[in-house]
Amino acid sequence: MDDPTRVEWREWGREAFDEAADADVPLLLSLTATWCDHCHEMDAETYAEPRIAAHVNDSFVPIRVDVDRYPRVRDRYNMGGFPSTVFLAPDGSVLTGAGYLGPDGMRQVLDSVRTMWDTKGSGAGRIPRPLREDNPPAGELSGDVEAAMLGQLTEAYDETAGGWGQQPKFPLPDALEFALKRDQQMALRSFDAVSANLLDEYDGGFYRFATDRDWTGLQHEKLLDSNGALVRAFANAYLHTGKDEYHQPAERTIEYLTTTLWNDDVDAFANSQAPGDDDAHGLDATDRADADEPPVDDGVFAGSNALAIEGLLTYYAYTDDERARRYAERALETLRSDLVDDGVVSHALERPDSDNGTDAAPLLVDQARTLSALTTATSTLETTVLEEATGVADVTIEELHDGESFLDGPTTDVGLLDRPLRPLDANVTFADALLELSVLTGEDRYREYARETLEAFGGASDRFGVQIARYATTTARLLDGPLVIRVGTDPGTDLHRAALRLADHEKIVVPNADDLEAGSARVELGDDVSDAAQTPQALSERVQSLLE
């Protein structure tokens, strides 16, 4: 990202914190993103103002962090959105923080922080609550978890505009998928609202969110991770309904991902596309074709690529779409060959220059998403990736398992990165992938780690919001046992393809099952096991019989 500011930004690392300690001054941490319009506005209007820049340079040590490239810094210092403007003591504790600040607001805050520092020094710093209270409240798992989440969704459901909550309106793919199996009418009305309001009808792909309850105030940036998750969600809606209104948004988004966001130089997906000119989004097709294309951040990140791979493979599983399969295979090959090494997933294909090792060790979010992509690939495409899936799982357990859950990364860095953080969403993603891995490998230990992880947060499960709907999904799969279809053939046979398209999206398909006769399949649900089936029709009958 071009820097129009006059601020002498340092990179995140030991050197900047030591400089602040030696000079006895606070740090100013600017959290920004290439796709963030308000970040660019603050650079142009606030940090480019000469007197403000001089004040920052003279009285603070300023650090600029790209939140996509340093997710652990983002998760500890985010002030509720981007840009985040955070003032730190040299020990990394937080003095104060805000979001966007215009010139007048920044002048006031700079003076206030200087006065605070001169009066109290590091004593004014505080540790955010998630980093003070390390261990989440544990609790037993029961069917109440699923019921409580359905209640949360029902209560938050917007009968008028669709979706959940008042404002802002995010697409919430995990909530869409949870509701799809448990209240399909509510789910489909929300799918309809997301596609009608957030899908870019001209270029394809989903915008990030809308600021207002009626889905107006569109934020036109497009992120790979949310688009990959929405491809999966809409593909699953198509599985349940067979309707084009759910097939087409997935198809249009795949077209967008494999054109605009495809990085042909490295055979992987780029990270995001900036909003561009807001006025251009309201133009008709002819005029929009003449408008400048919004810039793309061509950084390649493991976690978001893994989400895109999973989305494309899910769509391929239900449609046999060759475009989805081909690009998923190419990105998967890059993920496996260039981003995974002996089970350790590198955060980015090209790591940012850093002397502190921030990106050299496994990060839970990348490990979890990669494991999920590898288990999906095993079920749909290629069983040989199962060995790499177990490698990713084993390294994560060895390096990041702590107590009853998983840390977001190593506690060996500067600032508050030396404090343990157990992100709920990444723990749930990993637990869900472990459950699938247990079925695919037959190893119960992965299932037990999944159970232990979910139980570690169980004491607060009745308070989880709709953003954490996947916790309830994974808990239900664990307690009830996922529907499992074992197929004694390679992926791609008629029997295997039929298995992928039967029942609901929470099932697990195991190709090349070694305990089956070649050319046969069977269905399992908990302790119930069907007779073998040799044809797609017979397999469908076995599934229906077991589910009745």
TrEMBL record:
Signal peptide start-end: none
User: What ranges does the record give for the region Disordered, renumbered to this chain?
Assistant: 120-141, 270-292
**Amino acid composition bias (Basic and acidic residues), ranges on this chain:** 278-291
Query: Which InterPro entries does this entry report, sorted A to Z?
Result: 6-hairpin_glycosidase_sf (IPR008928), 6hp_glycosidase-like_sf (IPR012341), Ssp411 (IPR024705), Ssp411-like_TRX (IPR004879), Thioredoxin-like_sf (IPR036249), Thioredoxin_domain (IPR013766)
Pfam short name (any one):
Thioredox_DsbH
Q: Which domain of life is it from?
A: Archaea
**Start and end of every Thioredoxin domain?**
1-115
Q: Which GO terms describe its biological process?
A: carbohydrate metabolic process
The organism's taxonomic lineage, starting at the top: Archaea, Methanobacteriati, Methanobacteriota, Stenosarchaea group, Halobacteria
- Protein name in UniProt: Thioredoxin domain-containing protein
